[in-house]
Amino acid sequence: MRCSHCGKCCEKTEMELSNKDIEKLERMGYRREEFTVMNNGVTQLRNVGGWCYFYSPVEKRCRVYGERPLGCRLYPVVYVVNEGMMVDELCPMEQMISKQELRRKGKILENLLKKIDNERQQNRISRIRI
C-alpha cells in the first residue's frame, strides 16, 4: 500500500513502541524523553499539538518515515480489543489492503504486540526488584 500522507494515522496516535523501535530512534539522535510517553506501563509515541512527535502537519510528512516504528509500518492494519485484526477505517487507503496483506500484516502485528507485552512484564518485574 502506498501512503497518501494525509496524516490521519499520526493524529492523536496511541502507537505502542517496542524496545527495538525506541533504540532505533535513539540511534538516529532522538532522545527517548522527547518522543515517548508511558501509558499503563506501555511506551507510546508522544503527541505534540495533537500529532505524533515525528509528524509535520505543515509538510504532511513523517520526519522518520524511512525508519518509522514497526507498528507505523504495519498501519492501517490495527488490533481492536474484542474484534481482532482489522483495517483502520480512518485511513483513506483502507480499500487498498487485500485480505492477504491483512493476514500477513496481522500476524506480524500480533507478534509485535506479544513482544511489547513481554517487555512491559519484564519492566514491571525489574521495577519490583529495585
Please, could you describe this protein's structure?
A two-stranded antiparallel ribbon has the order 1-2. Strands 3-4 form a two-stranded antiparallel ribbon. Strands 5-6 form a two-stranded antiparallel ribbon. The mean pLDDT is 91. The chain is globular, with a radius of gyration of 15 Å. The chain starts with 18 loop residues before the first helix and ends with a helix. By secondary structure, the chain is of the alpha+beta class. Helix content is 38%, strand content 18%. The longest helix is centred in the last third of the chain and has 31 residues.
Task: Describe what is shown at a glance.
The chain has about 130 residues and is of the alpha+beta class.
Percent range for β-strand residues: 15-25%
First-last Cα distance: 45 Å
What's the number of extended β-strand segments?
8
Low-confidence stretches: none
Helical content band? 25-40%
Strand numbers in spatial order across the main sheet: 1-2
**Helices and strands: which structural class?**
alpha+beta
SSE order, as H and E?
HHEEEEEEHEEH
Number of helices: 4
Radius of gyration, rounded?
15 Å
Map the helices and strands.
Elements: H1 19-27, H2 32-35, E1 36-39, E2 42-45, E3 47-48, E4 51-52, E5 55-56, E6 61-62, H3 70-74, E7 77-80, E8 84-87, H4 99-129
Antiparallel strand pairs: 1-2, 3-4, 5-6, 7-8
